[in-house]
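Figure 3 (text version): structure tokens given as input.
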């Protein structure tokens, strides 16, 4: 569906009450320059597992699903549109170019006629045009989640999918009683980084892929993460939910573990992606010396990638959780501050063109605000916070969430308090920052 039409779908959609835990989705996008060969769209997107997918315009066809006359089984979702795009002719921008193209798609269905369920699920990173037809200057991209379901009765329906969980309170059953399209990233034309903040990522992959096919236009072999012409098991969900499931009234519980996946692997060489999430230390008095602990969390590709932490001494291997790309390491070294750790990720075993990446991670204490309270009658704000550094407690300073100074917390130990006048308007949130780099933000509770 054209992106402008999706706005109508949004108006009809049942409100999603809850969504999956937020995750880092896509990692990087082609910064340009953009070329007519790809419609002046970004050539590629890279996910947090290190895979880079090109805008899929190849005319390679599936060797698993035979083509039929007038219906080639393209490995890319090339959607003919009479008068706009003729797939039998060369792809030329803007005179013969798809009005919708894709870097990635993952589509699935659940149909149970006896239970009155007909579910369609779409996940995609899409290229389109704000005005509808291909036109220079109208290029946009977005990450899409679409859920459409015919349900028999009213009630609460929970849909778990590879990129999260959506809950719908349906007032009445019927065709498309659930009708939700969530497009994230549509912004200024020819600005493609908005999709990095969407729900899609990392890219799903067919369990039997990657598939190699020959592009008849270039004669070159190309690789694809899936085959959109067939349903197959898949992997890559950031939550390990490699399925689509619908739960609802009267014990409804249906799922599918197969989807149709498309995406053309790029030949662009990219560094291994690494996202520094947290590097904190704690220490307290011991019998003869301080007892210290360092905790490091990063996102990087799952094994066979190797992720190491240089914590001065020794170099530690991080442990990865459940093939989701979340890594963790712990060290008992008592840090000398200031200290900056070095995390290196190397994914060349999975993606030969990938080069190692090293990122610095400043080591900070962990600050926790246990109380942030404002009294409307007295105009007093009270803030209580603690630092994980019990042996050498740093200075803790409070500000509003917008950076307006409130004051310095005081106390002899790791827990410190600040009570001061602050009027006439209380802040919505306060932030406490440590002189050793840690910080925490908390909403202010209003009392009278």
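Below: residues designed for each position.
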């Amino acid at each position: 569906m054209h992106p402008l039409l999706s706005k109508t779908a949004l108006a009809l959609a049942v409100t999603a009450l809850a969504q999956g835990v937020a995750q880092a989705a896509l990692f990087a996008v082609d910064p340009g320059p953009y070329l007519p060969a790809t419609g002046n769209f970004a050539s590629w997107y890279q996910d947090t597992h290190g895979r880079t997918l090109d805008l899929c315009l190849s005319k390679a066809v599936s060797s698993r699903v035979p083509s039929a006359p007038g219906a080639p089984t393209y490995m890319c979702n090339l959607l003919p549109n009479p008068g706009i795009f003729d797939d039998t002719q060369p792809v030329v921008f803007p005179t013969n170019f798809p009005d919708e193209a894709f870097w990635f798609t993952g589509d699935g269905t659940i149909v149970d006629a006896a239970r009155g369920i007909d579910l369609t699920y779409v996940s995609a990173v899409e290229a389109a045009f704000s005005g509808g037809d291909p036109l220079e200057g109208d290029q946009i991209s977005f990450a899409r989640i679409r859920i459409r379901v015919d349900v028999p009765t009213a009630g609460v329906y929970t849909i778990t999918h590879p990129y999260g969980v959506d809950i719908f309170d349906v007032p009445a059953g019927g065709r498309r009683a659930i009708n939700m399209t969530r497009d994230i990233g549509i912004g200024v034309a020819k600005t493609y980084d908005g999709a990095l903040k969407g729900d899609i990522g990392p890219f799903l992959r067919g369990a039997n892929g990657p598939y190699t096919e020959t592009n008849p236009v270039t004669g070159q072999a190309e690789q694809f993460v899936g085959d959109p012409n067939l349903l197959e098991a898949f992997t890559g969900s950031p939550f390990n939910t490699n399925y689509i499931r619908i739960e609802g009234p009267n014990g409804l519980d249906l799922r599918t573990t197969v989807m149709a996946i498309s995406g053309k692997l790029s030949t662009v060489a990219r560094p291994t992606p690494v996202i520094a999430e947290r590097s904190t230390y704690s220490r307290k008095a011991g019998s003869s010396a301080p007892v210290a602990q360092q905790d490091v969390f990063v996102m990087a590709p799952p094994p066979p990638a190797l992720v190491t932490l240089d914590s001065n001494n020794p170099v530690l291997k991080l442990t990865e959780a459940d093939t989701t790309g979340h890594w963790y390491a712990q060290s008992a070294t008592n840090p000398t501050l200031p200290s900056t750790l070095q995390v290196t990720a190397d994914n060349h075993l999975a993606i030969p063109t990938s080069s190692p990446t090293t990122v610095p991670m400043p080591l900070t204490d962990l600050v926790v605000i246990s109380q942030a309270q404002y009294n409307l009658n007295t105009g007093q704000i009270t803030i209580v916070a603690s630092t994980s550094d019990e042996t050498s407690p740093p200075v803790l300073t409070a500000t509003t969430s917008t950076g307006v100074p409130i004051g310095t917390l005081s106390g002899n130990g790791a827990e410190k308090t600040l009570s001061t006048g602050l009027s006439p308007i209380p802040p919505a949130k306060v932030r406490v920052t440590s002189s050793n780099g840690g910080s925490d933000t908390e909403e202010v509770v209003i009392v009278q």
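The mean pLDDT is 93.
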